[in-house]
Amino acid sequence: MAASIVKRVNRVKKLNVSHISARYKFLTGSRHFSTSKQWNKALVLGVYENESTDSIDFTGTARKFDEKADGQISQLLLTVKKPLKCGKTRTLHAVDPEFSSVLVTCIGKRGEGYDELETVDKGRESIRAAVAKAVLQLRELGENEIEVDSCGDTEASAEGCHLALFSYDDLKAEKSRKPAVRISCATRYSQDKNSMEKEWRKGAILAEGQNLSRRLMEMPANLLTPTKFAEIVKEQLADKCEVLVRDKDWAESMKMGSFLSVARGSVEPPVFLEIEYKGRQSDSPLALVGKGVTFDTGGISIKPSQGMDAMRGDMGGAACVAGSLLSVSKLQLPVHVKAFIPLCENMPSGSATKPGDVVTAMNGKTIQVDNTDAEGRLILADALCYSEQFNPSLILDMATLTGAIDVALGAGAAGVFTNSEDMWNKLQKASVRSGDRVWRMPLFNHYTKKITECQLADLNNIGGSRSGGACTAAAFLKEFVNNKNWLHLDIAGVMSNSGDVAYLGKGMSGRPTRTVIEFINLMSKETNN
Ligand code: BES
Ligand code: ZN
Ligand code: ZN
């Protein structure tokens, strides 16, 4: 009894914030490895779906391993009648002296590619999902060093493994955490090992960016305050980017009355982050803007308590901006990026903004705040205005902005509102590569009318009725942008994963970080960014 009380007291002590931050090492990729560890090696091999019951359609790498094992792998697979179907696996033991387990995973039909209706590259998606399942099964078996088949698309294979192995369990007791796993690409039979390693590294970096976004989103709001978010971003990016941490006085001097009206309900001070990555000299950077509400209670228009814990992820836009910048800088893309992240909490209190209050944004427009839960657009209004001062070639903002986009698209795709056909085409192309989809939504004048009909001010922060909620929110943001290449991504529907994406575990998704990195990669090939 006494011992269990001591244990409980220790546990409570452990959850003390400063205690956690002291012992907590912020990791973005795989975990740290102890050198005294015993390594249990395993191998993942890919096969294509094949109706035949007397032959196996191996990938190039898998065929070589089978030859080396004197055809044992194919023989063992053929001992059962039913051929492997896409997404299914078989685990073999004692077929190769080097590996305690050889896991064969089916990557779908040979030659599968872009599917127009699904707007996805099915071949790449199947590889991501198949290797993800494989490495998770091997981790369950206690394997901790896994060599993975490139499956004909090294980058997708690396993405699948690195995304699947992510877990946010830093705040749990050591024994309940997922064990560390070392993964590498099976390059030994490749004609061009160097380019394969390079591709693998690119996939791993793309996943690392998304994993940073996931970790930031998942972190509880008592640990990830605006100040702490800025600290972590500095720690992660400062060697590759310039990171400026602006305070409340600075925001006041910039006349960011709309942003500050959200922050005023909380005792946590707001922060405005400005980050610059200069992979190339240019006068017209590419601007990224991210909603950074580290917790959204709704303010005085308070949300229902059920499910409110998910609002720790309301800085998902900010997290995706940080994750994208991590990858862009690690890949050393030749592009100039400037990022703008308004960070604050949306809390109800004696000093909070009240429904009906009127605030003034940086561009002088007045806003009647009829619903304090529509706070994302208020903080983005000032961030978008500010970003325009840097002559950006395009502005891309990301925000967990509306429940309405979740009603419209669910977790199927991020909603994209843009004034540029060209930008839309490029973003869509990027999403086909990443497998993290986008879907275009309208910016009609119809929606603008809903937020300009306002009793006291130039704009109302809600559209009157619930209809078209994601579209009226986008129309509101449009009032603060002059740039001809503007993209607004409403990512509230893709904020968390509950089994929709096979290679992402349950929890905050970090979507659409990889799509944005691919988009920036595409833009870096244009001359003016
Ligand atoms: N942060 C929410 C949107 C949200 C909902 C994000 C679900 C992730 C999951 C946003 O600030 C909000 O509360 N929006 C309101 C707007 C309404 C009051 C016009 C909403 O969507 O209900
Ligand atoms: Zn809200
Ligand atoms: Zn919000």
Automatic annotation (TrEMBL):
In the record, what lineage is assigned to the organism producing the protein?
Answer: Eukaryota, Metazoa, Spiralia, Lophotrochozoa, Mollusca
**Keywords, A to Z?**
Aminopeptidase, Hydrolase, Protease
List, alphabetically, the Pfam families matched.
Answer: Peptidase_M17 (PF00883), Peptidase_M17_N (PF02789)
Which family does the record claim for this protein?
Answer: Belongs to the peptidase M17 family.
PANTHER family (alphabetical): CYTOSOL AMINOPEPTIDASE, LEUCINE AMINOPEPTIDASE-RELATED
**Catalytic activity of the protein:** Release of N-terminal proline from a peptide; L-cysteinylglycine + H2O = L-cysteine + glycine; Release of an N-terminal amino acid, Xaa-|-Yaa-, in which Xaa is preferably Leu, but may be other amino acids including Pro although not Arg or Lys, and Yaa may be Pro. Amino acid amides and methyl esters are also readily hydrolyzed, but rates on arylamides are exceedingly low; an S-substituted L-cysteinylglycine + H2O = an S-substituted L-cysteine + glycine
The name on file for this protein is Cytosol aminopeptidase
Coiled-coil residues: none
Q: Which domain of life is it from?
A: Eukaryota
The EC number of this protein is: 3.4.11.1, 3.4.11.5, 3.4.13.23
Q: What does this protein do?
A: Cytosolic metallopeptidase that catalyzes the removal of unsubstituted N-terminal hydrophobic amino acids from various peptides. The presence of Zn(2+) ions is essential for the peptidase activity, and the association with other cofactors can modulate the substrate spectificity of the enzyme. For instance, in the presence of Mn(2+), it displays a specific Cys-Gly hydrolyzing activity of Cys-Gly-S-conjugates. Involved in the metabolism of glutathione and in the degradation of glutathione S-conjugates, which may play a role in the control of the cell redox status.
Which is one Gene Ontology cellular component term of this protein? cytoplasm
- GO BP: proteolysis
In terms of Gene3D superfamilies, this protein maps to: Leucine Aminopeptidase, subunit E, domain 1, Zn peptidases
Domain spans labelled Cytosol aminopeptidase: 371-378
Example GO molecular function: metalloaminopeptidase activity
Q: Which InterPro entries match?
A: Leucine_aapep/pepB (IPR011356), Macro_dom-like (IPR043472), Peptidase_M17_C (IPR000819), Peptidase_M17_leu_NH2_pept (IPR023042), Peptidase_M17_N (IPR008283)
**KW ATP-binding (keyword) present:** no
